[in-house]
């Protein structure tokens, strides 16, 4: 998967493809490109919100630890803020990602617009 992702993203970084280079830099093997990690971690949002999404606005990601081939990621998604005055119903989601060892690998804040008008507030 990592090699395929590197080809898709035209990622030439040797940390993502070369075992020797990765080991020389303190990693146990090639690490997943950030774009692959981000994509895998935010894809479950579609399961949470379904067809109500009008637009995917932003993602802010903080990488906490490397992701390796064969890692199992546990993804927790929480709606943390709803913006009441906007063209769309804007909601921010916090995504917390840990690996099979319980190590935090990423935190992501995603802002999405939903296909409903927010309730008017007085």
TrEMBL record:
The MaoC-like domain, residue ranges: 11-94
Pfam families: MaoC_dehydratas
Domain of life: Bacteria
Database matches in Gene3D superfamilies: Hotdog Thioesterase
Membrane spanning residue stretches: none
SUPFAM superfamilies for the chain: Thioesterase/thiol ester dehydrase-isomerase
CDD domains the record matches: R_hydratase_like
Entry similarity comment: Belongs to the enoyl-CoA hydratase/isomerase family.
Name by which UniProt lists this protein: Acyl dehydratase
Organism phylogeny: Bacteria, Bacillati, Actinomycetota, Actinomycetes, Streptosporangiales
């Amino acid at each position: 998967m990592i090699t395929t992702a590197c080809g898709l993203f035209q990622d030439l970084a040797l940390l993502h493809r070369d075992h020797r280079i990765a080991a020389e830099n303190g990693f146990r093997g090639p690490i997943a490109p950030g774009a692959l990690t981000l994509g895998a971690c935010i894809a479950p949002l579609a399961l949470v919100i379904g067809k109500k999404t009008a637009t995917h606005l932003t993602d802010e990601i903080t990488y906490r630890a490397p992701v390796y081939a064969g890692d199992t990621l546990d993804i927790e998604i929480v709606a943390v803020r709803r913006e009441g005055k906007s063209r769309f119903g804007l909601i921010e989601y916090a995504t917390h990602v840990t690996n099979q060892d319980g190590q935090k690998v990423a935190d992501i804040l995603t802002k999405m617009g939903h296909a409903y008008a927010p309730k008017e507030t007085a």
